Amino acid sequence: MIKTDVVVIGAGIVGASAAWHLADQGIDAVLVEREHPASGPTGTSSAVSHLFYTEPELSLLARRGCELLKAVPEITGHPDPVFHDVGMLWACGENNEAIWRKSATRIRDEEGGGIELLTPDAVAAMAPGFNMDGIVLALWEEGYGYGDPYDATNAFAASARDKGATLKQQTRAIALETEGGR
Predict the structure, then answer these.
(1) On the chain, which terminus has fewer CB atoms closer than 10 Å, C or N?
(2) Is 4 within 8 Å of 166 (Cβ atoms)?
(3) Please, what's the largest Cα pairwise distance for the chain?
(4) For the purposes of burial, counting CB atoms within 10 Å of the CB of 3, is it exposed (0-12), middle (13-18) or buried (19 or more)?
């Protein structure tokens, strides 16, 4: 039996990050994972990272998430970058133009996000050979792309361990016992 202050069950990106934050605060934490970090849904995520959402709450959350992914090496002390800027290009037809234009303008002007509105001609110049049929507006997010969910999760898990957390891999949590309300 393991005795600890906090048990984090599941070493996906959220669990590994939680264990890191706990360990960073000096809290005795154990991270329990039935296989290995990022072996579940986190490891199979496409981790496409961008700002463009039509809902302000989502674009603000996405911006913060991208900032955190970009900072993983600095945060964890593990040097390999986990975020890869390759740019994101979005294109829409006439039916979505108004809401896309409004949302992209909000992201750029009110939220300070790096998003550029492009004409079809500008897209054709960027991407010769693209079929431009039906495209009336495009959005370009230069500083965005994808995060490596496996590397990010493992950076947090390893750094949590370096800070004193215990990482139990190939371990299933089958019961939690409390004592004295803890």
Answers:
(1) N
(2) yes
(3) 69
(4) exposed
Q: Are strands 166-168 and 29-32 parallel, antiparallel or unpaired?
A: parallel
pLDDT at residue 181 greater than cutoff 90: no
Contact of 57 with 103, CB cutoff 8 Å: no
What 3-state DSSP class applies to 78? Answer: coil
Q: Tell me the pLDDT tens digit for each residue of 47-88.
A: 899 999 999 999 999 999 999 999 999 999 999 999 999 999
User: CB-side exposure of 55: number of CA atoms within 13 Å?
Assistant: 4
Name residues whose C-beta falls within 8 Å of residue 98's C-beta, 6 or more positions apart in sequence: none
Nearest residue to 79 via CA among 164, 19, 151, 175: 151
